[in-house]
């Protein structure tokens, strides 16, 4: 039926179709997540992403076309990143109170989070674009996307990496904290936010408001630190690498 | 609609961030510069205006939705990355185990003497 064909083409041509698909998958994902009792090992975003992939497959839209339409939505990531400045400001009293341990541990832990992952991937023979995609794996998504674009990595792979990292961080923090007999919710929250970005921070808020506040602190400071230094370090290493090979 | 005014704050700071990045050539995203400038402005001003909170809170809550179009892309590169998945997953999982252990160990030692305020 040619009429239905042309209707389908018309609908697929408008970016609002991609927007509607995204909103539908998000709501379905959140709904199922709540139904399942908010499991920590299965974040809502993972469920929603699977729904979205299914919707894309059903409607037959090629991913690049969908991506272009969804740009109308994702352009909001810019102002949303700026918005993170508000909770950061609200946490300043806590930062001041604990500035000494934070000044030492944050740069070390945030740098090592990058170096461990890159070191392992490099030893196992990952290519340079893969390294560039994994470098920002512990950074909250809106900031990590910016970093990865600077490094020339794949956003899709980064996003998958963020998901795996967030879920792994939740599991390892609870295991290791028990093993190391750490009960201080400030430390547990901070570790969740620093290593597990937004996914870890959501988990920390489930533990307690204090853990949540320290997780958002860890998340925002890691994001800022990595965003400021990783692209510079990457450029530097690239320059050294080139002068060595040439 | 106070949220409209707040949204203008956010977009405005993003544009300032973009200006700074373009002029200085810093390898940092406009959003991060805007975020830092926003918290610096709030520090000087002392307090969060209601309109800003009205726009910032829902946007932060929607972050997960805004990154979904990107996240779903990973399903479309599964074949492309075939052969690298062991390296990628080892780096992510083992790397996270090591960095979690480092963070907990560092904080455990550095926070001695800082008693929980209650």
TrEMBL record, chain A:
Location(s), subcellular: Membrane
Keywords: Membrane, Transmembrane, Transmembrane helix
GO cellular component: membrane
Bilayer topology term: Multi-pass membrane protein
Protein origin, superkingdom: Bacteria
Chain segments annotated as transmembrane: 12-33, 40-63, 69-89, 101-124, 155-175, 211-234
This protein's record includes keyword Transmembrane helix: yes
Primary localisation category: membrane
Record bears the keyword rRNA-binding: no
InterPro entries: CidB/LrgB
A Pfam family it matches: LrgB
PANTHER family referenced in this protein's UniProt entry, alphabetically: PLASTIDAL GLYCOLATE_GLYCERATE TRANSLOCATOR 1, CHLOROPLASTIC (PTHR30249:SF0), PUTATIVE SEROTONIN TRANSPORTER (PTHR30249)
Name this protein carries in UniProt: LrgB family protein
TrEMBL record, chain B:
Keyword Cell membrane: yes
Residue stretches spanning the membrane: 6-38, 59-78, 84-106
Record's keyword terms, sorted: Cell membrane, Membrane, Transmembrane, Transmembrane helix
The protein's name: CidA/LrgA family protein
GO CC terms, sorted: plasma membrane
Lineage: Bacteria, Pseudomonadati, Pseudomonadota, Gammaproteobacteria, Oceanospirillales
The keyword Membrane belongs to this UniProt entry's keyword annotation: yes
Source species, domain of life: Bacteria
Organism: Vreelandella rituensis
Protein topology in the membrane: Multi-pass membrane protein
Signal sequence residues: none
One protein family per Pfam: LrgA
Subcellular location: Cell membrane
